[in-house]
Design goal:
Number of helices: 15
Largest sheet: 7 strands, mixed
Helix content: 40-55%
Shape: globular
Radius of gyration: 21 Å
């Protein structure tokens, strides 16, 4: 289904011996991204809102990228897409606006499975507004969210539920649809961190009915840029912290200062690459979605289906490579029958090795892997691993190969101190 050599040929940085398994921290970028960014800087480089040619061209590129991102998330309109520096900055920014809706004693629900970017902003506004934080626990045996605990934590006083779509630490995909339903039943908002989900699966914000959702372009093959989706009526309602001459309507009122327009252009190139992927390799998925989606939205859906199918194969290979190794303990879902419940991010410990020490040794063998807590501090604390240096993380993307995984298995099996 997927011609892996054709895919890899569109990623210039893959033309060396380095194996990029550091993808959850940031993926490599497609040639389409570089082309768009270079063209922008050479031909369209100007600030927003001018009457002259380069400014008009720049605004046109931004609008096209906004529409493409709306297609990627299946948003109802491009004005529901807000650009910013990264997911963390956008979340902190919009959290200040949400704080204005809160009163002392109101409740906010967060989970112990999330990246701190979807925890700390809510802890801060709870402190400032006198709100109560409720924590949702996890099942340590497979690192899944305790959905019964989520149901207990959501009460009539809940005003916000913050939940990750997929864990950046252990790969678990959460039932965000259920979380949104629980929030809406009590009149609360639901904020989704989709940073780790976006590189692997299609996101449909209208089907989810989420209020706010954030992701980062550099986690799905694009440049360093953050994206915030919000229901238009909600974005209109929220008071933005902005300079006075800035736009008073969404999305402009949340896009503080001058944006990185070249990065927005690069994001457009990234989405063009994903649409190419779907058009070129996703024909077998067309019949599943063509009644609901057309044009670029269909192509992007097909592209993400292609990625998901191939990454499921990679997940099987990494499981075969890791599980036979003596002293290796994998955290998270390890049942191939449950691959749809996780993204291909695998974290583990190896007896006799500290995670940092192991990462340094693998770097000598040209493997890029992460160690530590990956800012998922609550996950590591809950698993009792924070004081031990966290875990080693291998995160796969659709440009990785079975051969690279087999190389990793051999490298781990021959480690010597």
């Amino acid at each position: 289904m997927l011609d892996i050599e054709a895919v890899r040929s569109r990623f210039p940085s893959l033309n060396n011996e380095t194996v990029f398994f550091d993808n959850p921290g940031g993926t490599q970028i497609a040639q389409d991204v570089l082309r768009r960014m270079q063209h922008y800087l050479l031909n369209t480089n100007a600030n927003h809102g001018g009457a002259f040619t380069t400014s008009l061209r720049s605004d046109s590129v931004v609008y096209e990228a906004r529409q493409a991102m709306a297609d990627f998330l299946n948003a109802a309109r491009p004005e529901e897409i807000v650009f910013g520096q990264n997911m963390t900055s956008l979340t902190l920014h919009v959290s200040r606006s949400i704080a204005l809706l809160l009163q002392p004693g109101d409740e906010i629900v967060v989970t112990r499975l999330d990246h701190d970017a979807n925890i700390a902003p809510w802890l801060l506004i709870a402190r400032d507004r006198g709100c109560i934080i409720h924590w949702v626990d996890i099942h340590p045996e497979d690192c899944t969210l305790d959905m019964q605990d989520l149901e207990r934590q959501v009460t009539p006083r809940t005003k916000l539920v913050a939940i990750g779509y997929a864990s950046n630490a252990v790969g678990t995909i959460n039932d965000v649809k259920r979380a949104i339903e629980l929030a809406h039943q009590v009149g609360a908002l639901c904020f989704i961190d989709a940073v780790q989900y976006a590189p692997h699966r299609f996101i449909d914000v209208q089907e989810l009915d989420c209020d706010l959702l954030a992701c980062s372009g550099y986690k799905f093959f694009g440049p360093h840029i953050g994206i915030l989706y919000g229901k238009y009526e909600l974005l209109q309602k929220l008071e933005a912290y902005k300079v006075r001459p800035a736009d008073n309507e969404p999305p402009g009122k949340f896009e503080t200062g001058t944006q990185s327009f070249e990065s927005i252009a690069g994001l457009l190139g990234c989405l063009e690459y994903l649409a190419w992927l779907g058009t070129t390799f996703g024909a077998s998925f067309t019949h599943q979605h063509q009644e609901l989606l057309t044009g670029r939205r269909l192509a992007l859906r097909q592209g993400m289906e292609v990625i998901n199918a191939y990454e499921n194969e990679l997940s099987q290979t990494i499981l075969q490579a890791l599980t036979p190794l003596p002293g290796l303990k994998l955290y998270g879902i390890a049942d191939p029958q449950r691959w749809q419940e996780r993204v291909p991010t695998f974290s583990f410990s190896l007896e006799g090795w500290q995670p940092r020490e192991l990462a340094e040794q693998l770097a000598i063998e040209h493997f890029n892997v992460w160690n530590g807590n990956y800012y998922a501090v609550e996950v590591m604390a809950r698993l009792g691993l924070e004081e031990q240096g966290g875990l080693l993380r291998v995160g796969l993307a659709h440009y990785n190969t079975h051969t690279e995984i087999e190389r990793l298995g051999r490298a781990l099996s021959t480690l010597k101190k």
